[in-house]
Amino acid sequence: MKFIILDTETTGTKEEDRIVQLSFLVTDENNEIEEIHDTLCMPEVPISYEAMAVHHITPEKIVGCELLKETKPYKRLIELNIPQNIMVIHNAKFDLEMLFKDDFENSMQIIDTFRVLKHLFPEDRHSLQVNRYSLGLYKKEQELINKHNIEINAHDALGDVVVLKLLLDYLLQENSIEKLIELTKTPILYEKFYNGKYKREKIVDVIQKDPAYIEYLLTQTEYELDFDLRYSLNYYLQEYELEFKFQVGKYKGLTAKEVAQNGDYDYLRWAYHNMRMDKGLRRQIGEIIGIQTEG
């Protein structure tokens, strides 16, 4: 078993973007370095200025570089791509999707340190660079770099791989390899939204006050909606029902069920056919008055 501790730099973060630097360490079962791989490569699309501002890889630096699949590190990665090995990445989804664009289909087990940190320290920040300082990893970098004669530049993939190796050392002090793999696979239950229109608000509160927004989120594809957020929404919806309410009219603030309890089915029929409303409210009215609705 070997660890493949990997990071990439890319031309950007959009669908059309590609890898411009691939770096990884190969370590043994004790996380001791055996191999160091690092290469710039010629992407199929230009490097965006936003990406250059992050990693400082400019078009001039990749003149004459090979395509990614032609590089020695990529070919070595293919050789290492077996189920017995473990790939270690920070935010694996991004890097694996980028590698897939160059025909790399992962067969290794995965430790995603981003997900692991979310499980172990849910209230902390989970970026690699923040944890580089908060966990004191930066204090050990120079010794590791000198020992293995590693040449790195600020903000490049190889520099991040060095930090990632040290982060793995830290995590393995208190956790088994098996636990880190399992935490990577385990859904994370969010209590709050961490971005979007309800950032920092409790999911339960939003379910109750804006069911249309929740329903909208759940209609998004797996590429549009965060896996853990979908899991969290469905978890809370086992306890809290989406209750769509009238926003205008004489029954403003009431649900379709409450209007039905008042016996005003004529109003529900009129509202269904004439009033502008959320799809969820229209569907619930339709269920009450016996009309099939879509969505």
What does this structure look like?
The longest helix is centred in the middle third of the chain and has 18 residues, at 157-174. Strands 3-2-1-4-5 form a 5-stranded mixed sheet, with helices on both faces. Helix 3 links the parallel strand 4 (86-89) and strand 5 (109-112). The protein has 14 helices and 5 strands. Helix 5 (128-134) crosses helix 7 (157-174) and helix 13 packs across helix 14 (279-289). It is α/β, with parallel strands linked by helices and 295 residues long. It has a domain at 3-185: Nucleotidyltransferase, domain 5.
Shape: elongated
Radius of gyration: 25 Å
CATH hierarchy class name of the domain at 3-185: Alpha Beta
CATH topology of the domain at 3-185: Nucleotidyltransferase, domain 5
Relative strand content: 5-15%
- Describe the largest sheet: 5 strands, mixed
The strands making up the biggest β-sheet line up spatially as 3-2-1-4-5
Please report the total strand number as a whole number: 5
Distance between the termini: 48 Å
Low-confidence stretches: none
Number of helices: 14
Q: Provide the CATH architecture of the domain at 3-185.
A: 2-Layer Sandwich
Task: Pick out its properties.
14 helices, Nucleotidyltransferase, domain 5, 295 residues, 44% helix, alpha/beta
Brief overview, please?
44% of the residues lie in helices and 11% in strands. With 295 residues, it is α/β, with parallel strands linked by helices. It has a domain at 3-185: Ribonuclease H-like superfamily/Ribonuclease H (Nucleotidyltransferase, domain 5, 2-Layer Sandwich).
List the helices and strands and how they pair.
Blueprint: E1 3-10, E2 19-27, E3 33-40, H1 49-55, H2 72-80, E4 86-89, H3 92-100, E5 109-112, H4 113-120, H5 128-134, H6 138-148, H7 157-174, H8 177-185, H9 203-209, H10 211-218, H11 227-237, H12 256-261, H13 265-274, H14 279-289
Parallel strand pairs: 1-4, 4-5
Antiparallel strand pairs: 1-2, 2-3
